């Protein structure tokens, strides 16, 4: 097996108990989205997972893990700093040579399924629970003549580093070190790459006996959140009133670049339309919530705009792009280089006319006509949050693919897959204050689950999971 390469955990690691999924964290919000690394959280209901090493039908060693029940469907799943809690057990009916009991908690990125491929270690925390050379062993009556007997247990609690650093020369203090949020567990069937987390109990048995080892795979969810909404949007969500458009709420919207599209009306009349897509500010959204959209279209042809003033004229989708590779400088053997990428759409926006906008609001005494549409992208609860790890990135873009309606045909551009794309970030927590409100209708396909290979439950971490 190839040797792993290590990233360095950030020095100041948070400690504390996991927060109940529905409880609010109280703190001063950062200027931009960030991991919630500085907060002491309170315990939620836990679920116990047990892993055993049996010999002749009897359990010799076992590992018990306690994890938040709400997010641990089939495997223990932790979020934020954790901690990873549990106990290690030895059940020795006869004296046996035991040299050490060591627990490791680690995270790693693997570019493929083959054991020959090198791996990037995100963090590796090792704790010796018992050693034959310790003061505890010297005074333990069950440890005699270098052999241990009876039943023994060692509780443990290990915090998870919420950030890791990637550096060029392997030194965490080197100039240019970049801080990254620890990524969520990733193991979709569409890609061979994976982000994996494990607890490993290792029991040393001396030179002439094979050691006992009990591995446990666990899921991990980072705690990341967006900034608060701008003032007018906050008021709209508090009072559950329609959002104000970008003309009034200037701070509440971010404009993508304007684009000009060409088409034909009834297969005979050429038409030019200027489109300006707006995204709700800030451009950081909680999975399971919505991305409010606003489209302004202007043209000298009123009839073309009338045809486009429907809920089916625009195709705007959320695009996810994953890229991965181990940098060549990290490889012991360059033959182990492995890279890949995947790009796919994970949701399409719904649209409806903006009743507050007149057709000629921006066209007084001109030959330019205007229509405005409200839109929403409904974000899936199981979206993987944005990830900036150099070896493994998950990026999202809101993309406008087409503008079409019965009677109006857009001239297709064969080179570009989409007319425009604007980057956004997906996070796991809600911001303090009111939540975004869904105004538009649901799509039939938006709740279709992604195909995953691990048993983690997903959803925004500051409220109960959807049923």
Please provide a written account of the structure:
The chain has helices at residues 135-138, 231-239, 302-308, and strands at residues 5-6, 8-9, 34-35, 46-55, 58-68, 77-79, 84-96, 100-110, 120-131, 143-144, 147-158, 163-166, 178-181, 194-204, 212-221, 224-225, 253-255, 259-265, 269-280, 284-286, 290-299, 314-325, 339-348, 350-353, 369-378, 387-389, 392-403, 408-410, 420-427. It is mainly beta. The chain has 2 domains: 5-224, Immunoglobulin-like (Sandwich); 229-427, Immunoglobulin-like (Sandwich), CATH 2.60.40.640. The longest helix is centred in the middle third of the chain and has 9 residues, at 231-239. It is elongated. The chain starts with a strand and ends in a 40-residue tail after the last strand. 37% of the residues are buried. InterPro entries: Arrestin-like_C (IPR014752). This is Arrestin-like N-terminal domain-containing protein. It comes from Psilocybe cf. subviscida. Residues 1-25 are annotated as: Disordered.
